[in-house]
Design a protein that fits this description.
This protein has 130 residues and is of the alpha+beta class. The chain has helices at 2-13, 39-46, 58-61, 74-93, and strands at residues 17-18, 24-25, 27-31, 53-56, 95-102, 106-114, 120-128. Helices cover 34% and strands 30% of the residues.
Length: 130
Amino acid sequence: MSGEIVEKLKEASTDLLMMSESDYPFEVVQWEGAAPATQEKILQLTGSQNLPVEVVELDYLFRNCAFEQEWHNELQKKDVKRFQTLMQTLKDNLSDISVYRVGQINIDAYIIGQTQNGDLAGVVTKLVET
């Protein structure tokens, strides 16, 4: 079951770039039997123990890319639907989704949820915020 989810997430995130001060692709991540997710567990699984972490909602993370904005250029407007598809794919296949923003300035954003069989899965991207 988790293998299918990984494939669906790969398909939904391929060639999609997360907008911040730099644009970064998404990578699919999965940890078997690791659920439920906690801040401590995410830091441990990602080897980021000494970094600050902030938890935000999925809609908040994608507020500028999954919802059309007046300032979007044509490419960004086209990507809005792709971001909506990625969000829907995450919501359809994972429960208890949270976004873990790890670090400062160069931030790793882990969008992680729980699969039906107790794995943690999702996607990770980078954000640059100075």
